[in-house]
Every structure is written in structure tokens, then in C-alpha cells.
Design the sequence.
């Protein structure tokens, strides 16, 4: 550890000022904070809380139900990334229906579905298109590929989110005493690398709180946490991930996204419908849409599941009555215990220590 990092670590571990709540809004940050043991480094006066930064976690259970309905009613093949397989719908998961004989396939790249569809022209394929600003260009690239190759037996069921309006909703929340719930954010490095750090500037100024753009190594996160604490009350975006993030972002990726997608309202788990916080396929390409609109509720497999409260920073995983007993990685009751970026999944190995706090 460099001398500068050691100085930051000493400050954060010895901090005894007013309690400060820093929220990360990136699932990869959630994973990296746990992996690097950063919660054990900082003072108890610094609360590192997880927000709605995992795209799988914020996708409502009704979306899983819709995918299952499409597979059952239309005899379609559902194609998805791995994390979504075990997310519970209101009664079943994609993994469960796969075990019952449904054609559900896991891929590592959206482009794989184009090859499936071309090789099996008589079958309908539905891609579970979930993600944030980082992933949406990949789906735009897929739509470009489908258009160029004249493949017509692929549709996308989209649950695509954009960060700013959801963060705005988080910032507007208040504690019972009127104080803000969040004093600063670790801004998502991946999202900012695509959309630019500028997307958080209006929110920083509006709520007079710092947004510290962070990388994913332990030292990078420590630096960003230090910056967020030191700059509490300053409405500005601080970029601590300059090797990958610029103010304007990746203009080519954003232009590709804009070609195929347009803003829309979106349902977030635990936050409900947030205006203009999502992306949908443009009307001119509507033939590729599997019926993505109209997901207006957040059904649960277990009504006691606290995923929504955990995603908005109102509870920690240990405060959920199901955590570590009824809800485990082997038997998840909510998306936060399923995803590799979920806060409950990362808290589970340390559940005894978490309950002791």
C-alpha cells in the first residue's frame, strides 16, 4: 500500500465525526467492497450501504413471470445470462422450468442468439435483455446484427434501466427527522465509462452531495470512499477512475443505443415505477419486442422478502427476517441472494458477524 493510500486508510478507520452514509450503486462495487474487506477498514461512523446497482436485483419478479409465460404459451426458447436463471418469479424460476423440460439456454454474449435463430429458423427465440447503460449497447449491437442478417425469429423482452432518475428518487427520500438518507455516492465506473460522469452532475448540484466515480480495485475504492467522506456536502462529481471514465463517455456506444432504443418509464424492484428511468425498443424496430411494456407490479415468492428495502438502503441484509435461514444461496427468496452482484449473496458468508452489529 502506498503512503497516500495508507494515509487515507488511517483517516477512514479513525473517523469520529458525524455519521456519514455512502451508497454504492454498482453491483461490481458491492462485490469488490466485500472482497477487499473495506467495511472492516472504515470507522463505524462511516456506513457503506448497497443501492440498486445490480440489474438482476432491480428487475421485478413479474419480468420472470412474463418470460415463463412466453415460453409456455408460444413454445419459445428463452435465452439469458446465467444470473437470471435462478431469480424467483411469483411461483417458479427459469431454472425450475428448464428442469421441467423447457428450452431455456444460458449464453455469455447476446450475439449467440443470432446464431441459434439462424440455425433453427422454425423456432421463436426470446432474449432476456436486462441491464443498465453499460449493457444496453450490447443489445443494440444484437439488433443491428439481426437487422443486417435479416433474422426475424428473435425478440427481446427488455428490462433496461438508466441510473439518473432512479438515483434522483433515492436522493429525494428522507429519514424521519428530515435528514437525507444518503450523504454521498460511489458512482458506478462501468456506467460512467459508457454514459460519462456528466450524467450525475445535475444530481450532485441539486442535492449538494458528492458523487465519487470509482474503479474496482481495493485502492481505487478506498480512494473514492475517502473522497466522498472528505467532500461531504459538496455538490460535485469527483472522478477517481480517470483511466476509464471521461466526462462525456463513449459517444459511439451511446449513439448505437440511441439508434435502437428510446427512454421510457420502468419498474424497479422496491422503488416502483420511475418515469423515464428505462429504455425500450424504438417503434421502427418493434417487431423485435416480445411485449416488454406493462410490468407494473413486483410480485414476490415470499412476502417477507426485504429485497426492495435492501436495494434502497433502508435495511441491511441482516435486517431481513429470511436472511440466512429461509433465504440462502441454495434456496433464494429474492434476487439479492441470487445474483453474483447481490448484497445478500455477498453478506451471506459473513452473516454471523453482520447480525452482531
Sequence:
Amino acid at each position: 500500500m502506498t503512503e497516500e493510500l495508507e494515509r487515507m486508510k488511517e483517516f477512514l478507520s479513525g473517523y469520529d465525526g458525524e455519521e456519514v452514509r455512502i451508497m454504492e450503486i454498482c453491483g461490481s462495487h458491492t462485490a469488490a467492497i466485500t472482497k477487499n474487506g473495506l467495511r472492516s477498514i472504515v470507522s463505524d461512523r462511516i456506513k457503506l450501504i448497497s443501492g440498486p446497482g445490480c440489474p438482476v436485483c432491480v428487475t421485478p419478479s413479474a419480468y420472470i413471470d412474463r418470460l415463463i409465460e412466453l415460453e409456455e404459451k408460444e413454445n419459445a426458447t428463452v435465452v439469458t445470462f446465467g444470473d437470471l436463471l435462478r431469480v424467483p418469479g411469483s411461483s417458479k424460476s427459469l431454472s425450475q422450468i428448464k428442469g421441467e423440460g423447457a428450452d431455456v439456454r444460458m449464453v455469455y454474449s447476446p450475439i449467440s442468439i443470432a446464431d441459434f435463430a439462424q440455425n433453427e429458423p422454425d423456432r421463436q427465440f426470446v432474449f432476456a435483455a436486462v441491464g443498465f447503460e453499460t449493457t444496453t449497447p450490447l443489445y443494440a449491437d444484437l439488433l443491428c446484427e439481426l437487422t443486417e442478417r435479416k433474422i426475424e425469429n428473435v425478440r427481446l423482452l427488455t428490462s433496461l434501466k438508466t441510473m439518473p432518475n432512479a438515483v434522483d428518487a433515492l436522493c429525494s427520500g428522507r429519514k424521519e427527522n428530515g435528514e437525507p438518507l444518503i450523504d454521498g455516492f460511489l458512482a458506478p465506473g462501468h456506467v460512467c465509462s459508457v454514459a460519462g460522469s456528466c450524467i450525475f452532475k445535475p444530481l450532485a448540484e441539486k442535492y449538494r452531495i458528492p458523487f465519487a466515480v470509482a474503479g474496482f480495485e481495493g485502492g481505487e475504492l478506498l480512494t473514492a470512499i475517502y473522497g466522498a467522506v472528505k467532500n461531504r456536502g459538496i455538490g460535485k462529481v469527483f472522478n477517481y477512475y480517470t483511466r476509464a471514465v471521461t466526462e462525456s463517455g463513449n459517444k459511439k456506444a451511446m449513439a448505437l443505443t440511441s439508434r435502437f432504443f428510446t427512454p421510457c418509464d420502468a419498474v424497479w424492484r422496491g422503488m416502483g415505477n420511475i418515469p423515464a428511468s428505462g429504455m425500450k425498443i424504438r417503434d421502427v424496430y418493434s417487431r423485435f419486442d416480445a411485449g416488454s411494456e406493462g410490468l407494473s407490479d413486483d410480485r414476490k415468492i415470499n412476502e417477507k422478502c426485504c429485497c426492495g428495502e435492501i436495494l434502497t438502503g433502508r435495511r441491511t441484509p441482516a435486517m431481513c427476517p429470511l436472511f440466512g435461514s429461509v433465504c440462502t444461496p441454495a434456496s433464494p427468496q429474492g434476487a439479492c441472494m441470487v445474483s453474483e452482484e447481490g448484497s445478500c449473496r455477498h453478506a451471506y458468508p459473513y452473516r454471523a458477524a453482520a447480525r452482531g452489529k
Notes: The mean pLDDT is 91. DSSP finds 17 helices and eleven strands in the chain. The chain has two domains: 1-301, 307-355.
